[in-house]
Structures are given as C-alpha cells and as structure tokens.
Amino acid sequence: MDVAKQVLRSEGGARGLFKGLVPTLAREVPGNAAMFGVYEALKQYMAGGTDTSKLGRGSLIVAGGLAGASFWSSVYPTDVVKSVLQVDDYKNPKYKGSVHAFRSILASEGVKGLYKGFGPAMARSIPANAACFLAYEVTRSSLG
C-alpha cells in the first residue's frame, strides 16, 4: 500500500498506477497466444497426434522452453516500449505515449534498440517456462 500511495502522490494520481498498461496488454495478449499455441503445437508434433498424454518429461521441457522463447521472440520490442514508459519521468516526460516511444527508440538506436536485454530475457524465459509447463503437466496428470 505504501508504494501505491507514493505513486498516487508522485505520478499524477490514479493515472500513475496504470503507467505502461497499454503496451503491457499489447505484449501479453499476442505473447501468450504465441506461447500457448506453440506449446500445444509442439506437444502434438512430438506425440505424433493430438493425444499428448504419453509424452515424457523431456519432451514437455523442450516444448515449454521453446514456447517461452516464442513469447519473447514475438513481442520483445513491445516490452522495451513498456519499460521506457514505466520509468519515464512524470513531471518531465520524454515520451508522449507508446507510439512516440517506439518511434523515438527506433530513430535514435535503430532496430537494435528495440531488443535491448533480449539475450538475458531469453536466458531467463526458456528454463523458467520449461519448468513451469512441466510442473503444470505433472500436477495436472497427478490430479487425474
């Protein structure tokens, strides 16, 4: 609650609590669609059909890791835009919005600027999603 109070005071009221919401939604919706689509498609490919119940843990780990990679590969520039908007100074903003931030980064740093931190994001995402999807499948199968 203390953080919320501080944001309300220093970031222009309730609007400050929602800073970066538009690019967050623009990242999450297509990113999750890609991730879950790739995960299910890879499971079916590795199973040789739609019955994926007999897949081993190794296959689930590979499918989960690649699914996580597909999330970030499909939406990473949107995450960069979200991040710069969230840390932008409220009183003296550098960016007018998502499109302005995107264009500014592209103009000043080129396409490379839209992929700052991509390597570490992938290094985190692949094992994290591999573990997460494996845990989901193991839990699901143990519950019946």
Automatic annotation (TrEMBL):
Pfam families: Mito_carr. It comes from the Eukaryota. One of its GO terms (molecular function) is L-ornithine transmembrane transporter activity. Keywords: Membrane, Mitochondrion, Repeat, Transmembrane, Transmembrane helix, Transport. It is found in: Mitochondrion membrane. Signal peptide: none annotated. GO terms for biological process: mitochondrial L-ornithine transmembrane transport. One of its GO terms (cellular component) is mitochondrial membrane. Solcar repeats lie at residues 1-45, 55-142. Transmembrane segments: none annotated. It is a multi-pass membrane protein. Belongs to the mitochondrial carrier (TC 2.A.29) family. This is Mitochondrial carnitine/acylcarnitine carrier-like protein. It comes from Gossypium gossypioides. The lineage of its organism: Eukaryota, Viridiplantae, Streptophyta, Embryophyta, Tracheophyta.
